[in-house]
Amino acid sequence: MTLVEAGERILPALPPRISGAAHSELTKLGVRVLTQTMVTSADAGGLHTKDGEYIEADLMVWAAGIKAPDFMKDIGGLETNRINQLVTEPTLQTTRDPDIYAIGDCASCARPEGGFVPPRAQAAHQMASLVLHNILAQRKGKPMKAYVYKDHGSLVSLSNFSTVGSLMGNLMRGSMMVEGRIARFGVYLTLPYAPDCAARLLQNRPDDAGWTHQPGYSPASEAALIVISLRVLRRDFLAYHAVQCPSGA
Prior knowledge:
By secondary structure, this protein is of the alpha+beta class. Helices cover about 30% and strands about 20% of the residues. It has helices at about 15-30, 120-140, 180-190, 195-205, 220-245; strands at about 1-5, 30-35, 40-45, 45-50, 55, 85, 95, 95-100, 105-110, 155-160, 160-165, 175-180. The two termini are about 30 Å apart. Pfam families: Pyr_redox_2. One of its GO terms (molecular function) is NAD(P)H dehydrogenase (quinone) activity. This is FAD-dependent pyridine nucleotide-disulfide oxidoreductase.
């Protein structure tokens, strides 16, 4: 099996550490991972690369990322990019009409550190919250906010073999790298607990919007919630391991 990627690394929308871990796991599974390799053509027997290599294949799967529908190209005279996304200002207003906003996969929003906001569900959710704030601010003649993408964690499933990713992301003012059995089994087994824990973390933690602490809040209580979550993860993982491996192997 061969995975061909034109960019410098696979999973470019995710942090380098996660894409690197995924690359390593795929290699261990016997997958040949080619980066910085462009496909120029394909035929019934395989595909040709720009480097002149011919890769034989019985089955070829084309996964070239996202593209907005063709009707979006220059829609209403708005500026679009090569994949038909609406180009936006940092406030998520379109560049040619400040009364039109774009969020999610149809928006092309540049990041201050370079590159663009990745087309991910958590980005769309964050954008929606910001656009609500900015529309109200615009109507009241108040300053609007610039969108800053915050990565709250990612998980990449490698079928039945493994999983890599990071948990919690900025909710923990950092991230915790997870991979292998713990990521695959423990994280998914504790998903029923995650929404409640995350909701309480968000409820108790102040941010730039001026949220206030709930009664009884302290940094220790936030840390305690995280510890409880990790203990639940460990408990469920050990329970799963006991069922799958009764001998303790």
